[in-house]
From TrEMBL:
<dbReference type="InterPro" id="IPR036291">
    <property type="entry name" value="NAD(P)-bd_dom_sf"/>
</dbReference>
<dbReference type="InterPro" id="IPR002347">
    <property type="entry name" value="SDR_fam"/>
</dbReference>
<dbReference type="GO" id="GO:0016616">
    <property type="term" value="F:oxidoreductase activity, acting on the CH-OH group of donors, NAD or NADP as acceptor"/>
</dbReference>
<dbReference type="Pfam" id="PF00106">
    <property type="entry name" value="adh_short"/>
</dbReference>
<comment type="similarity">
    <text>Belongs to the short-chain dehydrogenases/reductases (SDR) family.</text>
</comment>
<protein>
    <submittedName>
        <fullName>NAD(P)-dependent oxidoreductase</fullName>
    </submittedName>
</protein>
<keyword id="KW-0560">Oxidoreductase</keyword>
Length: 254
């Protein structure tokens, strides 16, 4: 689990651990990883963790190799690490900050998948769930870095699903909804200047939450757990929302 020390990532890790899954967390903050692992272990879960930046191939691979030594084989990868990126019209955004969002949100998925997929293929079993967003399938003006990066994650998942046909390894991208944790904490606190582009985006998100469109982290974590169990050859590569995952859980249809 990348980005697993807090927010949605930690909620997913806790949900999987409660199901008896041995979980491994990767996040940039060493303190955050330590605290998350300690919390899970105190709850009786089996958990391990390493601090690593998902954009750094060398340190990420080292962390994953060390976790495999402690954990054993990895049968499920959840790519959750992500950043917002800059807000505002494209021509006003700093190109380096814009590309940094692509680096974390897309390269991070690529590197973690590249490191762990060969082992899954060798065992002919595995699941990869990539956290995406509706921003990747519908325009979100003034949040282009985030939107484009999530579109790339959805398309990467779709292509990988086709490449994995017949291997026993399946993948999916998931839009968890506006999850009421992590990023939305800052939104609800109104930390951004309402006149700024970030602040305007936050005003819209607050309106969505106040209208009851927020998703409890437990519901989003349940969706990941369902995908980990129910993904099949026919649904591999697909883009899911929490609603379509519910249908998958009920009748097995993608």
């Amino acid at each position: 689990m990348t980005g697993g020390s807090r927010g949605l990532g930690f909620a997913v890790a806790r949900r999987l651990a409660q199901d008896g899954v041995r979980v491994a967390l990767v996040a940039r903050s060493e303190r955050g990883v330590h605290d998350a692992v300690t919390t899970l272990r105190r709850a009786g879960c089996t958990a391990y963790g390493r601090a690593a930046d998902v954009t750094r191939a060398d340190t990420l691979r080292t962390a994953l190799d060390e976790l495999r030594c402690e954990l054993g084989t990895v049968d499920l990868l959840v790519n959750n690490a992500g950043v917002e990126g800059p807000f505002g019209p494209l021509w006003e955004c700093d190109p380096d900050a814009w590309w940094a969002a692509m680096d974390t949100n897309v390269r991070g998925v690529l590197l973690a998948t590249h490191a762990l997929l060969p082992g899954m293929l060798a065992r002919r079993t595995g699941r990869i769930v990539n956290l995406a967003s509706h921003a990747g399938v519908h325009r979100w003006p003034h949040v282009s870095a985030y939107s484009v990066s999530k579109a790339a994650v959805i398309k990467l998942t779709e292509n990988l699903g086709q490449e994995l046909r017949g291997t026993g390894v399946h993948t999916a991208s998931l839009h968890p909804g506006i999850v009421l944790t992590g990023f939305t904490d800052a939104v609800l606190a109104g930390e951004a200047d309402p006149a700024s582009w970030r602040g305007r985006a936050h005003v819209w998100l607050r309106g969505q939450i106040e209208a009851g469109r927020g998703v409890p982290p437990e519901d989003a974590a349940d969706a990941v757990a369902v995908l980990a169990r129910r993904l099949t050859e026919t649904s591999s590569g697909a883009y899911f929302t929490t609603e379509t995952v519910t249908r998958l859980a009920n009748d097995g249809a993608p």
